[in-house]
Amino acid sequence: MNSGIRSNHEIDYKIYGEELQFVEIELDPNETAVAESGAMMMMDDGIQMQTIFGDGSQQQDNSLLGKLFSAGKRVIVGESLFMTAFTNVGQGKKRVSFAAPYTGKIIPLDLQELGGRIIAQKDAFLCAAKGVSIGIEFQRKLGTGIFGGEGFIMEKIEGDGMAFVHAGGYVLEKELQAGEILKVDTGCVVAYTSNVDFDIEFVRGIRNWMFGGEGLFFAVLRGPGKIWIQSLPISRLAARLVEYGTYHRKEEGSILGGLGNIFDGRE
How far lies 48's CA from each of 16, 42, 73, 91, in Å? Predict the structure, then answer.
């Protein structure tokens, strides 16, 4: 799917910012972008908003039952029940912008150049050209589903248009050669092309998994294919914030408390 005419709407885009990014999508007349509910930041006059069930793709069944099933699949992968379509109904080019939900990077994915399908972590999707399908991907291996960090279900993004996902912290894009293996913390896997083999591996050594702080399992990614890795999973950030917000000491505010914070890494 790396050549030929696209069946999905063809959109231009520009990403702004460093750590708190937004993507600006340029729409020709009658072109449409679809986005996660609440992602819209700003838009030009002449763009019409419409709330839809599912993803509005050609793969979606247009019957009521089909629309409910499509929307239900999105709930399973952590997305909201509805999506919003933004269509240029005016004259000339119009722009609509979508903001990242937390600090990190927006990853542009040209599905036509990536084999037509990307597997991503749950709730990674931000926006896409109309026609891109957002569904569910079941882990085929029992162990991977139970211990892989994302459960049995991940997000499947299919089509031949542009799609945008979001990840936390710095994002590394890496091309794996045939047979090349990379071991990754399970929460740091953002997305990978469909030809990458995803499995899990038990951390060896009782001291490693009891005191190493890295969990019991690695994600094992085997090439060939392209992968995206994030340095700060939102789950890790949330856990640190909760820990910091609920950690109280009697000596806080005192000189002794300040020294204690320095010694235990809290300053």
Answer: 23, 12, 26, 12
- The Cα 76–Cα 175 span in angstroms is 29
Q: What single letter denotes the amino acid at residue 84? A: T
Position 179 in a domain: yes
Structure confidence by residue, pLDDT tens digits, 111-150:
999 999 999 988 899 999 999 988 887 655 545 444 444 4
Cα dist from 205 to 67, 148, 186, 218, whole Å: 49, 19, 18, 13
The count of domains in the chain is: 1
- Please determine, for residue 216, whether its predicted confidence score (pLDDT) is greater than 80: no
Residue in this structure with the two tokens 């038990």, named with its chain if needed: 202
- Using an 8 Å Cβ cutoff, are 58 and 7 in contact? yes
93-97, 103-107, 238-242: segment of lowest average pLDDT: 238-242
Which residues are paired to 196 by β-bridges? none
Range of the domain at 170: 12-232
* 44 lies in some domain: yes
Q: Are 148 and 219 in contact (CB under 8 A)?
A: yes
Position 239 in a domain: no
DSSP state of 219: E
Q: How many CA atoms lie within 13 A of 233 on its CB side?
A: 17
- Round to whole Å and give the CA distance between 79 and 92: 32
Q: What is the DSSP letter of 253?
A: T
76: helix, coil or strand?
helix
DSSP state, residue 216? S
